[in-house]
Amino acid sequence: RYPRRSLAWVATEYLKWNELRVEEGRVSYGYLRRNRWALSIFVKEFMGPKKAVIGYVDQQLSGISTPRLRGFRKWCTRQKNEGRFADSTINDLFSAVRIMTKWAVANSYLKAMPGGFEMHLLPLGKASRGRRRNEDTYIPSLSSLHEVMSFYRDQALVGENYNALQMFAYMVAMLNIGGTPIDLSYLTVDEWEDAKEHGNHLFLYRTKTGVPGNFQLWPQTVELIDYIKASNWSDPIVMRSPYHNDDEVELLLQTPR
Asked: What are the C-alpha distances in Å from 185 to residues 17, 57, 188, 189?
């Protein structure tokens, strides 16, 4: 598909190598998907389709070179300043490019590491993964959380209240992925089924930050959400999602946004 030894070709070969590692159980499927996403940003958005295909990976303008890595860091910083990427997202991008570069050198696609390689791909900030540092932010205690969840559980089991069961299922799912109702509401049927086909590993993008994540779903989460999905007899929600390249997608759950 791509000219041999072009950047796009090397990135494709690197991802094929990772596919083999997934089959061997050396890395997770979520790791592969994160790398695909990160390298698509580097190759398609930053480099552009022409430079990534025309020329060779070891050339200054079309490949992994010192000027290009320097430019990539500046480009990522600009995305951050425009509010598109958080530090943690950019660090994921840097990590993917850094590992692919080492792989390219090890496989003789690059003669040597570009000058300033480590400096230009040095992680931003403290890689806090978006954690808030506002000391005034209210964080509920475990006892409060247990009390709320126990209430919905008892209402569902004792009172046979379907709405309570639905709320309990959503709360379990949000705790499982460390997400918000918005994250859950944009979860698609395809993403859910894909997760179950890959050992209950759910890959999704955070709706607020765009950060990709891979989550191991609890058996209780899968059982509850599958039950809620099967019990919902209303028409499926199909929408154009900004989190899926504006394609039409079928949402898994009918949660308030």
From this structure: 34, 41, 8, 11
